[in-house]
Records
---
Amino acid sequence: MATTIRINEEVKQLLKLRSAETGITQFDLANRYILKGLKEDDTPSNMMSISDIEAMLSFDKPEGDKNLEKLDGVLHSDVPTNSVELKKNSYR
């Protein structure tokens, strides 16, 4: 699948130079660098990583959590609560 991305002129020139030095196409170099950057990126974000999702799902029980069910309704509020969502969110 082809797509277009905009990069600044300095990056474009560096990519062109590296391509000439190595004999590797700019396309292949750009893909290599983007993949490497994505794998090494540790920038905090609101997105969950694959390992975070796997960890959350490993704690998720189809039968529910009896402790949360005991607490459900103890506090009275006009805002409805969902104990399953509360449990899932506690692992984030």
---
Amino acid sequence: MKTIVEDIDTNIYELKSTNTTIKKEIGLTEDIIRSISKEKGEPSWILDIRLKALDFYNKLSNPSWGPDLSELDLTRIATYVKPKVNNKRTWEEVPDEIKNIFDKLGIPEDEKKSLAGVGAQFDSEVVYHNIQEDLTKQGVIYVNFDIAIKEYPELIKEYFTKAVPLNDHKYIALHYALFSGGSFVYIPKCVHVDIPLQSYFRLNEKGAGQFEHTLIVVDEGASLQFIEGCSAPGYNELNLHAGCVELFVKKNAKLCFNTIENWSRNMLNLNTKKCIVEENGTIEWIMGSFGSKISMLYPMALLQGANSSCIFTGISFAGKGQNLDTGLKVIHNNINTKTVVNSKSISKDGGICTFRSNVYVSKRAKKSKLALSCESLMLDSISKSDTIPVNTIETDDVEFSHEASVGKISDKVIFYLMSRGFTEEEAKGLIVRGFAEPIAKNFPVEYAVEMNRLINMELEGTIG
């Protein structure tokens, strides 16, 4: 991955391919779901889950809060798009039309330089998945989720749908009805994966949906850093992303889950992520939300074990026509549990950023500590930023703090920087990158560069 912002072509995310699809299903019916399951050769218990989820989807309503989702018409969405290639273990086997796009996005260049394994999904199917041999010898599993269903059925049955139930909300029910692709990761006891794993999801087809499922289990005393990248080219038709991430962090284990989402401005991003953390375990979320017309994304941590912890670091950037509704849910359900939140948002040209936090501390979660900090920067007078906290605390024996601030770029600071030779746009960019730097430094260096480049593109209005 390139490490100098100016060296990176800002058009790489707009690359499109028109010769990659061999099958497409449009709409949401029982027949389509049966067709998808048959195409994948799934066992009957998976089809049962899909059909049950379809029933939930039809019965559940849209959320009564947050952005308006009424423009979503599933009868016009391609809910399954099969590319011209099945899962490959070597990059050379991937068709040139698909490989060229991923090559320009930096995959598998990253694998060679800084990753222990890479998965690449194109539309509805994973086209490439590989892991370093030494990790396989230690018992690490990192495979396409569709393959995991067939090769590790007992593990999948133990964990699949257990963190995020089928009826959690309308769009997770949609996900379970249509899920396709994604990754399954299992880290055995006391194994420490020192180099990150990465899965990259590319939605290429216009008017399509993507519904990948990521399931990660970090067993007792183990550790992992996982990186998730997402992008799509812009179209004049609505696209939909409704993926799901289920994470399980066992006793004395640690998982750092990094996400950089760079969806196009025609995307509805309705993703769901949840982690269950056991005794002395830690989940660390590091998230960057860019692009998309609407995002509704609220990672959740259930701190089930004593001394477990959640660390959340996130940034979102909303430009013209964007409504990014993001945040965090956390449940403290045992003693000495800890949550630290550092969230930042930037809005410009009428963009809307909303941060929602939903904190629940049960009676048994005595001596818990929570510190939430939310900072918002608005670059003009027509943009909007809100922080909406909901806190339910059922014990007095807890330390809790929540602070939020909203500010605009100071005209005095702009004037000072311009007096030192910067243009007005350069001055604004310098201030915004300084505001974002505490978040960027939490990413691996290559992805910190990626985030800064995306900020530059947002400032220039070149995303989407």
